[in-house]
UniProtKB/TrEMBL annotation:
SUPFAM superfamilies: Ribosomal protein S5 domain 2-like. InterPro entries: Impact (IPR023582), Impact_N (IPR001498), Impact_N_sf (IPR036956), Ribosomal_Su5_D2-typ_SF (IPR020568). Pfam families: Impact_N. GO terms for cellular component: cytoplasm. Belongs to the IMPACT family. Residues 2-79 form the Impact N-terminal domain. This is Putative YigZ family protein. One of its GO terms (biological process) is regulation of translational initiation. It comes from Leptotrichia hofstadii F0254.
Amino acid sequence: MHPNATHNVPLYRVMENGQEYFKYNDDGEPSNTAGKPMAEILNILDVYNVAIVATRYFGGIKLGAGGLIRNYAKTAKLAVNEAEITEYVEKSIFILDYDYEYTSEMEAFLNGNSQKFGIEILEKNYSNRVTMKISANDEIEKELNSLQKIIVIKM
């Protein structure tokens, strides 16, 4: 944050394990004229897992409460619009263990469901059996457990 800034208004909104953590500060601006308008923009846009710091330099013109509210809200909206927003999907790690004879069946299942479950193959080990470590959405667990001749361990 720039040392010559008059105000650095911080805000964060995080969702973790179904719990929302939301905090903002006006950093010396009149009460509810800086952090709150930015927070309202995040609520309207339904954006989580974000932090914003709006920096303001006093330029000699007093904006008044209405001007501050409009400008801080506009700053938050511009920041969110410029950001690369991606949907967060919680994944789990699964260990798959199976005989070599099921390799083509297993690979067909994983390739065919890659997008549906967000599958990412992290490791493959070939010894007496095939052991694979994958990252995927939790919804895959039921499907994996329905497959025959495979051991599934959710980490």
